[in-house]
């Protein structure tokens, strides 16, 4: 029978659920606003409710498992959430056990950056690569790493919180509490904040002149209309991303850097600047590493979390085959 996996992308604002086949195709998809303030019980019933609705509307299939992507950092080995800043009440909450209690099939839990990296690796821009770094540039900066053909999970499954590389103690304050993090400069939030600050009193821009709040998309639109400040802000953003990506390239030696997240909607505008930075500042042996756009858009995490269920099943089958062999 037709095999499907359930993917859940639990975010601070939206909870998304999808049924995905083994080719990574989304068979059905639903989403609703996360009741982030209502506590874990409510959020878990949202996940359960969405899953029930999707399965009810689908022809008979074999469900191999459910993969759940959550905002991190979360210990996916113990499955216990210590604290999820964007969701209230998840303090010392046994998330994996509570999920497993509600479903008859195996539950996999993954930090969101790693889940999205898996999605792009298995079904998106990183297909067939042995080494990749996935970076999401959005409200914050997150990511995931595949090295030597394996997902890098690290201690407690929390590897690749790449937004929090810091080398500048007196730098901008990051939401993590530290100063000078990559995220504090390169995120969509930081970009927008810079635009708002710099537009004040600036003569050579239309940004903010109609009294409305400036969003990232306004800056890109203004740049397309020749706005000098907007163009400068975007070039600076590309340079900041290029600097962060260059560090990642030196650390992991990836075949490619895959960029996703809200800011990657403007990938074509940012890519030349990012690539130019790498070309100028990466060590000679690393200059040819390409930055590519995520292929799955906002579904990287959703598809990745479902891919987890397939990977978990494959791994279990391999283990079984090994056990049978010995
Ligand atoms: Zn930080």
Please sum up the structure shown.
This is ROK family protein. This protein has about 325 residues and is α/β, with parallel strands linked by helices.
Key terms:
single chain; 326 residues; alpha/beta; Nucleotidyltransferase, domain 5; 2 domains; five-stranded mixed β-sheet; 9 helices; 10 strands; 40% helix; 19% strand; globular; binds zinc ion
Give a structural overview.
It is a single chain. The protein is an alpha/beta fold. The protein folds into two domains: 3-118, Nucleotidyltransferase, domain 5, CATH 3.30.420; 128-294, Nucleotidyltransferase, domain 5 (2-Layer Sandwich). It is 40% helix and 19% strand. The protein is built from nine helices and ten strands. The chain has helices at residues 40-56, 95-102, 112-123, 182-186, 188-199, 216-224, 228-252, 267-281, 300-325; strands at residues 3-10, 14-21, 26-33, 62-70, 107-111, 132-137, 141-147, 150-151, 256-260, 290-293. It has a five-stranded mixed β-sheet, sandwiched between helices. A hairpin with a 3-residue loop joins strand 1 (3-10) and strand 2 (14-21). The longest helix has 26 residues, at 300-325. The radius of gyration is 21 Å and the shape is globular. The protein starts with a strand and ends with a helix. 46% of the residues are buried. The mean pLDDT is 94. Zinc ion is lined by residues 164, 174, 176, 178, 181, 183. Belongs to the ROK (NagC/XylR) family. This is ROK family protein. It holds the Pfam family ROK.
């Amino acid at each position: 029978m037709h095999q499907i996996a359930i993917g859940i992308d639990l975010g601070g604002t939206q909870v998304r659920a999808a049924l995905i086949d083994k080719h990574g195709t989304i068979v059905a998809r639903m989403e609703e606003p996360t009741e982030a303030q209502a506590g874990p019980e409510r959020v878990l019933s949202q996940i359960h409710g969405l899953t029930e609705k999707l399965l009810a509307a689908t022809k008979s299939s074999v469900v191999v498992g459910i993969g759940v992507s959550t905002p991190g950092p979360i210990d996916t080995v113990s499955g216990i959430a210590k604290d999820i800043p964007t969701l209230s009440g998840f303090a010392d909450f046994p998330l994996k056990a509570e999920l497993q209690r509600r479903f008859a099939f195996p539950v996999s839990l993954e930090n969101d950056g790693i889940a999205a990296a898996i999605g792009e690796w298995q079904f998106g821009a990183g297909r067939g690569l042995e080494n990749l770094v996935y970076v999401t540039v959005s409200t914050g900066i997150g990511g995931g790493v595949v090295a030597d053909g394996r997902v890098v999970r690290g201690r407690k499954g929390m590897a690749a919180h790449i937004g929090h590389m810091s080398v500048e103690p007196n730098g901008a304050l990051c939401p993590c509490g530290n100063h000078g993090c990559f995220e504090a400069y390169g995120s969509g939030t930081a970009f927008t904040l810079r635009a708002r600050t710099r537009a004040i009193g600036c003569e050579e821009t239309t940004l903010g002149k109609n009294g409305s709040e400036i969003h990232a998309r306004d800056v890109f639109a203004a740049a397309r209309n020749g706005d000098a400040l907007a163009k400068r802000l975007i070039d600076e953003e590309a340079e900041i991303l290029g600097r962060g990506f260059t560090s990642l390239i030196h650390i992991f030696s990836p075949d490619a850097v895959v960029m996703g997240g809200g800011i990657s909607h403007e990938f074509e505008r940012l890519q030349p600047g990012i690539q130019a930075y790498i070309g100028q500042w990466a060590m000679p042996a690393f200059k040819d590493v390409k930055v590519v756009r995520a292929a799955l858009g906002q579904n990287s995490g959703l598809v990745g979390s479902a891919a987890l269920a397939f990977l978990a099943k494959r791994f279990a089958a391999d283990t079984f085959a090994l056990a049978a062999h010995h």
